[in-house]
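Weekend entry, working from home. Most of the wet-lab plans are on hold until the incubator is repaired, so I used the time to fold the two sequences that have been sitting in the queue since the last round of cloning. Logging both here for the record. First:
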Amino acid sequence: MADKQQEKAIFRLLKKEVATAMQHSYPAISPDISEWKGKEIVDFQEEMASRVSGQISEKWFYTHMKTDSGSLPRIDVLNLLSRFCGYTGWDDFCHRNSSLSRSDTPLRKANRVFLVIPLLVIAILAILFVVFKLYNTLEYRICFYDADTREPITNNIIEVSLLLPGESPVNFLCSADGCLVLKTDQTMVTLVVKTPYYQPDTVVRVLDRFKREEMVRLRPNNYALMIHYFSRMNVKDWQQRRNQLDRMLSDSALIYQVYNTGAVGMELFSKWEFINKLTMPASSLNQIEILDTKYMKDRIVVLRFRQKPDRP
C-alpha cells in the first residue's frame, strides 16, 4: 500500500481525471476542479448519480475536491470517484497511476535539491576562497637603497602608497631602516614611493613567495640634497653657493618653512629671501630638512622644509 504522501499525490491525479471525465459531458467546464462552483458542482452531482449511483454533498465537495485537505476521503467515496473515471475502484486507480504519483513527490524533492546544491557549492567556494586568501597572504620586506651609493636609505621619511585595482591607495611609512613590511595575497604589486631626498618613483614588483625580501633602488633628488648640505656646511665662497642656488630655484619658486611648534605654523619665502638667509655667514637657517620639492623644467618651483633644532 502506498504511503500517505503518495496517496495524496494519487488523489490529486484522480481529481484531474474527474475533471477530464466531466469534460466529455460538459466540454465548457474548467479543467481545474478547484474553480468549480454552483452549477458546475450540481452538474457533477448529477453525473455521479447517473454514472455510478453515487451521492456527494456540496460541503463534501468543498472540503475534499476544491482544496487539499489534511486527510483522504473515505474509501467508499474514493471507489465511486475511481469508477466515475473508468476504473474498477481506488486500488485499481492507485496501481495504474502509482508511477506517475511517485514522480510528483520526487519532483518537489528534486526542486529542493536544485536549490540546496547551488547554495552548498557557493558556501564551499566562499570557504575555499577565504582559505586561499589566508594561505596566500604573506609578509614581504621591501627595502630601499641609494641608486648611486648602493647604500640603504635610512633615517629618511619614505612614504609608500600601495595601489589596488578599484580601491583607494593604502599608505605606509617605512621604518628608520628604510624598509617596509607588507602583508598581501597579491602576486604583483604597484607601489608609489615618495621621499624628500630622492626622486618619486612608481615601482611594479612580481612577488616571489619563496624569496620574500625585495630591494628597490631610488635615484637621488640632487637639488634637495645640495640645499640640505648647504645648510650644514661651512663654505667660504658664498657667491658660488648663491650662484648654484640661483640655477636650482625658479624665479617664481614658492618656498615654505614649516614649524613643528609655536603659534605660526608656516612661513613663505621668495627665491632671493631664501637664498639670502641660507648664504649669510651667520645664517638663521641651519640644519634644513627638506620635506617636499616640485620641479618644472629642471628647476624647483615648490620647496617645503623645516629646520631641525640645534643639538647641544
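Second, folded right after the first finished:
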Amino acid sequence: MAQRRFQRGTVFLRGKNPVWVGRYLEDVILPGSPNPVRVRKSVVLGTKREYPTKRLAQRRMEVILARINDYSYRPGRVATVEQFAERWMAQVVSKLKSSTAHGYAAHLKNQIVPLLGKLRLDQLGVENQQVFVTQIAGKVSRTTTKNILATLSSMLGTAKNWGYACETVHLNRLVFPERGVRQRRTGFSPSQAAQIIATAQGQYRVMFALAAMTGLRVGEILGLQTSDFDFERRIFHVRRSVWRGKLQTPKSTSSESSLPLPDALAAIVHEYIATIRPGFLFLNNRGSLFIAENVVRQQLVPILRALGIPIIPRQTSFHAFRHLHTSMLLAAGAPASVAQAQLRHADPRVTLGIYGHVIGDEQRQAVEKVAAILVPTCPKQKPVGEWIQ
C-alpha cells in the first residue's frame, strides 16, 4: 500500500486533568492478512503542564509521525498481547535459564495476559500501560509491579525488533504508588546460626555452614561438587547453580568466582567429602539434586522450631544466612568492596542497599557522643552485646 500523503495528525486536549492526545493513521499488517490495512491510532503526547500550548504539543506529534512520514516507512505487523506472548515464550523465553523463564511465565500468566491479552500491541501505549500499573498496584508490591513491567518491556522490545507496531515501556512516564513502609529482611543472629549448624546433621550441617560462613546463594550451594574445593590453597570455586533440582549457570557472570575457604569451614567440608563419592556434594535420597524449598521445609524449619528461633514467613530461608554473613563482614570492618566481592554483586550499591543494615562501632560511638552532650546526666548503659542473648 503506497503512502497516500504526508501526515500532520490531529492534536486535542482531553480529560479533567488535561492531557494532549494525538491521532493519526498508520498502515499495519493484521494476522492472516497478506495486505496492509490503514487504522486510526491515538497516542498521549503529554500533560498540559508539559506542553502549555497546542503548538508545542504539535511539535511532539511531529516527532512521533516522523517515522511514518519517512520515505523508508513500511507497515508494521500487528498481533494481540496474548498472541505475541505465546510466540515470545516459545521463541525467546524457552532459551533462557529456567529460573528466569519461570519468572517471565508467572508474570504473563498472572497479570499481563489476563489484563492486557485482548489488546493489540499497537494499542499498548503509555495510557494503557498506566491503566495496567494502576490495576496491579493494589495487588502486588511496588517492587513486584516494576518486575512485571520489566517483563512486559522485554516482550515489547522483542516485538519492536521483529517489526511489530508497538510502543516500548517508558518507566519515567508512568506513575507508581507511593513507597509503603516495609520491614527490612533480616538474617539470623550469629548465635542462632551457630546453634543451627551445631544441631543439623550430615550433609545439612555442611549446607548451613557453607551458607553462614560464605554467604553463597542456596542454588550455588546445592550445585557444588567435590572438585570445586582446593584445600591446599584454601579456596573453592562457584561454577554452577541449581534451581528446582535442575542445573543452570550462576545468576550472572560476576557470580562465577573463586572464594576463600576459612579453616573452620574447610575442616567441616573435608570431613564430609571423605564420606561420599566424588561428584555433587549434596544429593537427596533418590540420588537427585535438591530443591531448596524442600530443604528449608524438611530440615531448616524443624531445627528452628526445636531451638525456639522465630519462623518468619517469606524470610525464613537460606537467604537469612546470606544476610547474616554480610552483616558480620561489615560489622567486622570489611570495606564495601570486600563485601561486594564476597557476595559477587555486579553493583556495590546492591550490597549496601539490600544487605548493609549494620550499625558499625564508629557510627554508634559518634551518636553516643552526641547524645552524651545533649543529656550529660544519663547513666552509661551496658555494652550492646550484653543486650542480645
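Plan for Monday: verify the second prediction. Confidence is low (pLDDT under 50) at residues 384-389.
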